[in-house]
Amino acid sequence: MVEKPPLRVIAVANSKGGVGKTTTSLNIAGELANRGYQVLLIDLDPQGNATAALTQEELSTTTGQVLVAGGGLLDAVVPTTMGTLWLLGTGPELRAYAKQLPEQREDYRNVLRDILAAEAGGFDYAILDCPPSLDTETLLALCAAGFYVVPSRPERFSLDGVKRLVGLADRVQEAMNPSLQLLGVFFTQFNSNKPSRLHQDIVAAAAQLFPGQILPAVRDNQALGTAQRLAIPAQLHAPEAAGVLDYRALTDDLISALESHLTTTT
Ligand SMILES: Nc1ncnc2c1ncn2[C@@H]1O[C@H](COP(=O)(O)OP(=O)(O)OP(=O)(O)O)[C@@H](O)[C@H]1O
Ligand SMILES: [Mg+2]
């Protein structure tokens, strides 16, 4: 009998807002699910944008309740329109639950990691959509993840958010989660018809800061936003849209980076 590979956990994070974290989480998750993998998307952002993009149902149990209870994940996940994509969703109450955690358990940083280890073995991938901050939710994601990716926008000062996030991830890796690996940094909402000097300068600066870790950009493409508003995965709504094709290629690169990290560390 062929043994099922272990769960791969990927956090999508950046301390800056509006850089494409949720769009990336949804599209990596949608792409992997479309390939037949069992995928769990965990919404760790109290804004609940990934949740709203995947379900219009009222959720009976949300991320914060599972974190505070230290379990009950499988009772809380809900199916989506894609048969192999599952959601642990949230609303704004997550912030209050996350604030409660440090008072509740000394080792609260590992709560998500422990829940996934105990309950998520049936999934192939867990994708963690983080909020635009370095708050507890992002910390829990980086402590639980084996890998993380950092989307950014090709704009002035955008690399500040990437640097802050990678700085936190480095500290987490040193002190708490030695297996955490950066899969790559990439730019979203990229306008390839107007390659400005600024774009080129930012990509060059990113390549200097993160040598060998810049992944291909995702083009600016309305279909990605429309799919989210309609609460349909873009892979079903517009399978040939430019943004979907870019996320398909990006997913290939992420899987290759992930597998090569795994073979060099085992
Ligand atoms: N490649 C793209 N093309 C067009 N629109 C995009 C693209 N990527 C993201 N968007 C749009 O940009 C906005 C911000 O994207 P998104 O919500 O993914 O960012 P975020 O980093 O998760 O934001 P927040 O920090 O608020 O959680 C959304 O309206 C989304 O639909
Ligand atoms: Mg978001």
The whole-number mean of residue pLDDT values reads 94
Shape: globular
What is the C-level CATH assignment? Alpha Beta
Overall tally of structural domains: 1
CATH topology: Rossmann fold
The radius of gyration computed from the alpha-carbon positions, rounded to a whole number of angstroms, is 17 Å
Assembly level: single chain
Strand order of the largest sheet: 3-4-2-5-1-6-7
Distance between the termini: 22 Å
Question: Main β-sheet, in a few words?
Answer: 7 strands, mixed
The ligands found in this model are: adenosine-5'-triphosphate, magnesium ion
Name the CATH superfamily assignment. P-loop containing nucleotide triphosphate hydrolases
What sequence of helices (H) and strands (E) makes up the elements?
A: EHEHHHEEHHEHEHEHHHH
Category by helix and strand content: alpha/beta
Relative strand content? 5-15%
Query: Quick one: how many beta strands?
Result: 7
Query: What is the architecture at the second tier of CATH?
Result: 3-Layer(aba) Sandwich
Continuous helix count? 12
Q: What is the helix fraction of residues, given as a range?
A: 40-55%
Low-confidence stretches: none
Characterise this structure.
Helix 3 packs parallel to helix 5. A seven-stranded mixed beta sheet has the order 3-4-2-5-1-6-7, sandwiched between helices. The protein contains twelve helices and seven strands. The chain has one domain (8-265): 3-Layer(aba) Sandwich (Rossmann fold). The chain is globular, with a radius of gyration of 17 Å. Strand 6, helix 8 and strand 7 form a beta-alpha-beta unit. With 266 residues, the protein is α/β, with parallel strands linked by helices. It has helices at residues 21-34, 49-54, 63-69, 73-76, 94-104, 111-119, 136-144, 158-175, 197-209, 222-230, 234-237, 242-265, and strands at residues 8-12, 39-43, 78-79, 85-88, 125-129, 147-152, 181-187. 48% of the residues lie in helices and 13% in strands. Adenosine-5'-triphosphate (ATP) binds next to helix 1 and helix 10.
